[in-house]
Automatic annotation (TrEMBL):
SUPFAM superfamilies xrefs: Nucleotide-diphospho-sugar transferases
Function according to Swiss-Prot or TrEMBL: Involved in cell wall synthesis where it is required for glycosylation. Involved in cell cycle progression through cell-size checkpoint.
GTP-binding found in the keyword field: yes
EC number(s) on file: 2.7.7.13
GO-annotated molecular function: GTP binding; mannose-1-phosphate guanylyltransferase (GTP) activity
Limits of the Mannose-1-phosphate guanyltransferase C-terminal domain: 251-360
Family annotation (PANTHER family): SUGAR-1-PHOSPHATE GUANYL TRANSFERASE
Species annotation: Tetrapisispora phaffii (strain ATCC 24235 / CBS 4417 / NBRC 1672 / NRRL Y-8282 / UCD 70-5)
A GO BP entry: GDP-mannose biosynthetic process
Keywords of the record: Cell cycle, GTP-binding, Nucleotide-binding, Transferase
Catalytic activity field: alpha-D-mannose 1-phosphate + GTP + H(+) = GDP-alpha-D-mannose + diphosphate
Keyword Ion transport applies: no
Pathway: Nucleotide-sugar biosynthesis; GDP-alpha-D-mannose biosynthesis; GDP-alpha-D-mannose from alpha-D-mannose 1-phosphate (GTP route): step 1/1
Protein name: mannose-1-phosphate guanylyltransferase
Amino acid sequence: MKGLILVGGYGTRLRPLTLTQPKPLVEFANRPMILHQIEALANAGVTDIVLAVNYRPEVMVETLQKYEKEYGVSITFSVETEPLGTAGPLKLAEKILKKDNSPFFVLNSDVICEYPFKELADFHNAHGGKGTIVATKVDEPSKYGVIVHDIQTPNLIDRFVEKPVEFVGNRINAGLYILNPEVIDLIEMKPTSIEKETFPILVEQKSLYSFDLEGFWMDVGQPKDFLAGTVLYLSSVAKKNEEKLAKGSNIVGNVIVDPTAKISPSAKIGPNVTIGPNCVIGDGARIERSVILANSTVKEHSLVKSTIIGWNSTVGRWCRLEGVTVLGDDVEVKDEIYINGGKVLPHKSISTNVPQEAIIM
Ligand code: GDD
Ligand code: MG
């Protein structure tokens, strides 16, 4: 089987992390975001994976090559000279996606869930339509593509409305599809939106179905949702693979800690925290609902709450970080500093308080 991951875009909504690292390589639960997807595709029997990118992919090529062997997949980079949107990349990768008659998967690179690809393929093959969209329910559907059903035929999609201005329903496109190769014939080789241009044609042809996702789902393309997605992911790990969670008298609730991290026994970590490789957490530090990326240090008696600490950063002693604060790569926060909702660009040193949401350049 084959799969294409839409990796384009600059990940601007996940700045400052994406100023130094392409979004798909930002670690979610201590592994590059895209690796969660590559692994799930491989487990479902996919052998050919296309990564559709619209920037120079050198860093990604280097990082991902080693996983081809590990997961037994071939990874091809399909590079656009201008951004081709969410449908154009399928046309560009036509050769690989049409190499046999079997349907192929398409994934938005920023969605996290339990990826039920096998069940999706079975469902798709059984209904006989040209495409199937994975659907999930959300409270705030206006940010997404909304699916409206045919009353007579269960799961047949009657309308697809991308980013609706008026409420039409709360079942949304989870950003995961399986499509027959012939769908590529509906796409022209130019910037095209699959949501706005291709899906409406399939709806018209009564050939687009939806498959209900079980369990959690989150688009983790912005900091607030990245943290919320981490919480959901950790509770799913707690249910399925509890052995992956950290244990200890200084750990509360669902926490993942890389084995190379050093955490003081008098620190208190959790719930809902991930701590990356080579991190150091000092005496009496308190961390909750936060993501600490590789090689970062939180010194003694600091509180880190609802915060993402980028790589190679240092938080001093007696600091307080909260309110969806995000530190970029190589940031230094001096002792006793308060940051509430600050987004700190890479290589900065912070020596005055940031009491309100602000971008620190
Ligand atoms: N290769 C390539 N080229 N990829 C692109 C391009 C492009 O020009 N533009 C966007 N992408 C990728 C993004 O990197 C992302 O993985 C995916 O296409 C979707 O783009 P987003 O910018 O994240 O879209 P969205 O989150 O506003 O909406 C989409 O996702 C929702 C689910 O999270 C839509 O598919 C919605 O219908 C859906 O509900
Ligand atoms: Mg998105």
